[in-house]
């Protein structure tokens, strides 16, 4: 079977639990470092696509011209029925590729926040294992308008759209289900090293985010691995 393509949209991305979960499910992973301006592979070469997060705005094509290629690639994948899974910026890219706006979210979210699956999630192929109040890692300041015909799968207490599905083979998830504890610690360090101040700019201290990770990360990692395993199953069934 052809590999699932992990699309890297940020230099500070190691894909968290994704590679081991996918490979454990019997699916090979390939990486497109879109952030480097590397040309996209042919859709004929991949069985599925996972769009990972990033710190840029989805419409900043001047500062990040690679985003235009990712959007075009994503639209092509959806139109051809290639399974797509977008995470945070990846979910926003999916919505934008389908001609929907990506405005600022009502609040900036960082750290762990509860998610609220909708009734539509109860039989969703990827997210039916999620439960009301599950704590998910967030780090975003934008949100999405639902694409035409999309199904809302999860809400948040402060940001309404946390997960959606388009058709039967494309999902967008605002929260970072892919991260593990090491990646969260790395992102905090990178943000500080770049001169950022999480408390001033996002409303939580570094210590508070780390304390939340210590409390909630094990369950979040387990749920994230399950989403990847389920996506692998979708890919395998489509490819068969």
Radius of gyration: 16 Å
Helix share, percent: 25-40%
The share of residues in extended strands comes to 15-25%
In terms of structural class, how would the helical and strand content be classed? Answer: alpha/beta
Strand order of the largest sheet: 2-1-3-4-9-8-7-5-6
Shape: globular
Q: Segments where pLDDT lies below 50 for 5+ residues?
A: none
Distance N to C terminus: 9 Å
Largest sheet: 9 strands, mixed
The helix/strand order is EHEEHEHEEEEEHHH
Number of helices: 6
- Provide the residue-averaged pLDDT: 97
Q: Count the E strands.
A: 9
Please give a quick description of this structure.
The protein has 240 residues and is of the alpha/beta class. It is 35% helix and 22% strand.
Can you tell me about this structure?
- The chain is an alpha/beta fold and 240 residues long.
- It is built from 6 helices and 9 strands; from the N terminus they run βαββαβαβββββααα.
- It has helices at residues 18-24, 66-80, 89-97, 181-193, 198-202, 206-239; strands spanning 4-7, 29-32, 48-51, 84-87, 104-117, 135-142, 151-156, 163-166, 170-173.
- The chain has a 9-stranded mixed β-sheet with strand order 2-1-3-4-9-8-7-5-6.
- α1 links the parallel β1 (4-7) and β2 (29-32).
- α1 packs parallel to α6.
- The chain is globular, with a radius of gyration of 16 Å.
- It starts with a strand and ends with a helix.
Task: Fill in the keyword field for this structure.
35% helix; 9-stranded mixed beta sheet; 240 residues; globular; 6 helices; 9 strands; alpha/beta
């Amino acid at each position: 079977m052809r590999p699932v393509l992990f699309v890297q949209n940020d230099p500070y991305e190691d894909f968290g639990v994704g590679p081991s979960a996918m490979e454990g499910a019997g699916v090979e992973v390939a990486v497109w470092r879109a952030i480097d301006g590397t040309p996209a592979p042919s859709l004929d070469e991949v069985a599925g696509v996972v769009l990972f997060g990033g710190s840029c705005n989805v419409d900043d094509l001047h500062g990040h011209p690679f985003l235009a290629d990712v959007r075009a690639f994503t639209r092509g994948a959806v139109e051809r029925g290639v399974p797509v899974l977008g995470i945070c910026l990846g979910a926003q890219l999916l919505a934008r590729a389908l001609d929907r706006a990506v405005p600022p979210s009502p609040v900036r979210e960082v750290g762990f926040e509860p998610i609220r699956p909708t009734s539509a999630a109860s039989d969703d192929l990827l997210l039916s294992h999620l439960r009301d109040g599950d704590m998910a890692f967030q780090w975003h300041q934008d949100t999405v308008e639902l694409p035409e015909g999309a199904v809302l799968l999860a809400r948040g207490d402060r940001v309404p759209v946390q997960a959606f599905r388009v058709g039967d083979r494309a999902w967008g998830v605002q929260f970072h289900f892919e991260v593990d504890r090491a990646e969260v610690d790395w992102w905090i360090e990178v943000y500080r090293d770049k001169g950022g101040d999480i408390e001033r700019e996002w409303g939580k201290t570094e210590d508070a985010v780390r304390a939340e990770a210590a409390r909630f990360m094990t369950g979040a990692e387990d749920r994230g691995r399950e989403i990847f395993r389920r996506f692998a199953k979708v890919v395998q069934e489509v490819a068969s």
